[in-house]
Automatic annotation (TrEMBL):
Residues 9-77 form the HTH gntR-type domain. It comes from Candidatus Pseudogracilibacillus intestinigallinarum. SUPFAM superfamilies: Winged helix' DNA-binding domain (SSF46785). The keyword Nucleus does not apply. One of its GO terms (molecular function) is DNA binding. This is GntR family transcriptional regulator.
Amino acid sequence: MKRELDDQRPIYIQIKEFLEDAILKGSIAIGEKAPSTNELAKFYQINPATARQGMNELVQENILKKQRGVGMFVTEDAIQIIREKRLQEFFDHFILPLQEEAKKLNITSEQLVKMLKEEK
């Protein structure tokens, strides 16, 4: 896991994203126990309530499931849920603005595809 936190975004969101990244990369496997809030708090030197907030959002999104007295575990659907969510975010934050700017500049779809394929 990454150890650096940035000042630009809420810490609990960063914790949530770090856990999602670990799940996508396979560092935390389907069915495996996620780090505890205390482990995350110690590792990132943050308040356990902050770590818990990020983890609770993952529970609400059905990425993690709580087992009382045992911990939180990665759900069977976690990877699919994360990918679908991030694909939508990618579309909203990158593709739509790209299309809008291309339209303003009269860039055709073919030109845009060519530009994307070229490496600079």
